[in-house]
Amino acid sequence: MNYCAIDFGTSNSAVAVPDGAALRLAPVEGAYTTLPTSVFFNTDEDTREFGRAALAAYIDGFDGRLMRSMKSILGSPLADNSTDLGDGSAIKYTDVIAIFLDHLKRSAEKSAGAPIDRAVLGRPVFFVDDDPRADQMAQKQLEAAARAVGLRDIHFQFEPIAAAFDYESRLTREGLVLVADIGGGTSDFSLVRVGPERMKRVERKDDVLAHHGVHVAGTDFDRRVELTTILRELGYQTLDPEGREIPNRVYFDLATWHLINTVYAPKRVSELGLMRHLFTEVKHHDRLMRVVERRLGHALAAHAEEAKIGVAAGGETVIDLDEVEDDLRLAFDEAQLIEAGQEETRRIVAAARDTVQAAGVSIRDVSAIYFTGGSTGLAFLSGALAQAFPDAEAVFGDRLASVATGLGIHAQRVFA
Predict the structure, then answer these.
(1) CB atoms < 10 A from the CB of 45, how many?
(2) CATH entry, 174-216+342-398, from 3.40.50.300, 1.20.1260.10, 3.30.420.40, 2.40.100.20
(3) Residues 6+ apart with CB under 8 A from 247
(4) pTM check: above 0.70
(5) Distance (Å, rounded) from C-alpha 287 to C-alpha 281?
(6) What is the mean pLDDT of the chain?
(7) Every domain of the chain and the residues it spans
(8) What does the alpha-carbon distance between residue 252 and residue 388 come to, in Å, rounded to a whole number?
(9) What's the CA gap between 18 and 273, in Å, rounded?
(10) Tens of pLDDT along 312-329?
(11) Nearest Cα to 10, choosing from 374, 407, 410?
(12) How far is CA 192 from CA 111, 160, 338, 370, in A?
């Protein structure tokens, strides 16, 4: 029984282990069975923190390097590059992924009470859009990271198909389900034929009628919120004295997790300082310089994510930017979130429709949409998808654990 199932997500991760004839999610951070996909290299105390503890240590002001959304760099030119940890040392991005996978594996072994060297790993339908070679490279990089931490027998399963297994386990009759797995980095869709008789099969390739995905999801909504709300207070899309838009590269980098640290390079900080004459409102430049000099980029990104989550929970929220400037607070509501994410919503709904079209069936043939992934908590997004499939029942799984549970079901079939 020395196997596990790992859901290495862009925003959140989980791991399932056998428990007799059944399976269960292993605690991965205290009593939590899911954790944010985050690592903090604490150079003050020479430690590594994971998940919520990583975010807390960073916010508490310890020196070091916070890394999130590491999965999103797989298949990109950045993956084999190294990044500075802030103490003069550097580490490859793929090694950071291995360190995080090792934490998940150790958590699984502690929960199972035995060493583990076999695993099913989830993967998105596309790590990289419209680039099969880069997509294949991304899976190889993830597999190499898994082997580096001692996993020898490794199988992959598409994350939305894993979610279908979880949904299927509750069905009493056959149906055609569109699995919408919308996480932090990717929105993946699979049209799957499911039913109580079909779930007895190990090989389910013929039941997958189509799968499709786009590299657009929760972190893209965060980015839009930050650009259209927070960074406008730092000069984004404002005009210089000659009516031209202020150069926007610094703002795009500040709104992209894995690029934030590039803004802090001394040469770049110096160049930004020389741009003061371009700002018609010098308070915008002052705020921008405060952010880069105090290294507040990750804090701003966290504020954007918190604002999105706050609005998704209902009502409106206030973005407190006191660390940038005393009493700088911004109101934020659902209407602003919907407007900010219009293009992302359109692309996600189009991908869902394309999936069904690729299967050669009618939208009316879809009996259910099964929602999983953290970003399905955005009511306007899940509502837009439900509206696109008016005859389908909207079914919501565990947003953070359905994929891990489904991967565990597949692991039982593969290894048992």
Answers:
(1) 11
(2) 3.30.420.40
(3) 275, 278
(4) yes
(5) 11
(6) 92
(7) 3-159+405-415, 174-216+342-398, 219-340
(8) 31
(9) 56
(10) 877 789 999 999 999 999
(11) 374
(12) 32, 9, 30, 11
- Is 3-159+405-415's fold the same as 174-216+342-398's? yes
Measure the CA–CA gap between 32 and 165, rounded to whole angstroms.
23
Q: What are the C-alpha distances in Å from 380 to residues 2, 244, 359, 387? A: 42, 35, 26, 10
Residue 67, helix vs strand vs coil: strand
Amino acid at 143: E
pLDDT tens-digit map of 328-371: 999 999 999 999 999 999 999 999 999 999 999 999 999 999 99
C-alpha to C-alpha distances, 2 to 7, 119, 151, 246, nearest whole angstrom: 17, 9, 10, 57
- CATH T-level fold of 3-159+405-415: Nucleotidyltransferase; domain 5 (3.30.420)
**Measured CA distances, 176 to 135, 283, 403 (Å):** 27, 56, 18
Q: Which strand ranges, in their side-by-side order, compose the sheet holding 175-182?
A: 208-214, 187-194, 175-182, 368-372, 393-396
Q: What's the distance, CA 70 to chain centroid?
A: 9
3-state helix, strand, coil in the chain (%, to 5): 45, 25, 30
